[in-house]
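Researcher: Structure prediction, please.
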Amino acid sequence: MRANSDYILVIGCFDTKGEVFAYLRDCLMAQGERVFTINTGVLGTTKLFPVDHEAEQVSAAAGISLADLRQKQDRGYAVEIMSKGAAKIVADLVAAGGLKAAIGMGGGGGTYLAIAAMQVVPLGVPKLCLSTLAAKDLSRQLGSKDVTLMPSVVDVAGLNSISKLLIKQAAAAISAMANVPVEQENASAGRIAISMFGNTTACVDKCTELLQQQGYEVFAFHATGTGGRTMESLIRENLFVGILDITTTELADELCGGILSAGPDRVNAAAEMGIPQVVVPGCLDMVNFAQLDTVPELYKSRQLYSWAPDVTLMRTNGRENKKLGELLAQKVNRSEGAAAILLPSKGISQIDAAGGVFYQPETDQVLFQAIKEQAQDKIPVLEIDAHINDTMFAEMAVNTLLDLIKKKAAGTNLE
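Model: Predicted structure follows.
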């Protein structure tokens, strides 16, 4: 079931919070909006407004009956099941068309349910959650999605002068966001994603300049964990025609327990989606930690460098570089021909250059050799006699990617 035209989706636990959601619905309708509702509350429903998807449908979408869920009497399990079911229903609504925004409200459970359901809503479709937890770190729940968090100040339980004001403002905010006209972008050759770090900025800036000269729109993602996850997520949404993965440093943080890991799925999406990509082991010479005193005891005797007062970099060693090279090649091997790996022989970061604090050509060669040995024949591995931030390397990276894009468009592979 879905609304007949564009609508705002309201997700919430209508069993215990029917009154506040009825008020939210009224506020949205006062803004002239059509409203579609999903009940994620397992204890019952509300008679204060019509519910489009009841809790029985939500749990069933996750493969379990509501009766069985109630009988189990496990709140954590119920939240998990209902979040999965809600996400499945929302995904179907997105596919059917008409969903122009989504809004939810709640405490701990309600916030988790709303954000989980919003994960399937595409980038650019407004998402807002009025939450008691808005001031906390919800990065794990939010992932890479563009969800706006709004503090509820008081608990989302019953109506009072504060909650009514903030719910009315939330309704006005999501309505305004949903009705922002989408500007028609000037025609471009396509979108390119590129990963960057302070240590690879010169390379990324030059690549961006060269791609823009060819008519491409370039999207840079800071390799801070969140940036890498966001890039991977948007690649899976098929937003890009090509990927310049210049800065794969998040793999080193994942291996060594640094603070900027993007998780084990980093450098997977382009291969899985069949999108042309050029991959570079940029900044795999370093692992990121916060202040010096936060570096794990295991690494206290390693080569450390203070990049900033709150950023401590650890130089990766030969053993780690071997593992990283093998991992990088294995990930790129999953590509069906539309990929290449470029190796800058004179250094893979700003501080891994002649005279730089992390300059260790022999350690870089361990990395490069591992990549060469693991890469399959269908994946070209090109070692360039340049530093990663040299203009020549940026030109080679761009030209290689453009060649891959053209050959994919022509229905051929690189070989």
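Model: The chain has a mean pLDDT of 93.
Researcher: Thanks, that helps.
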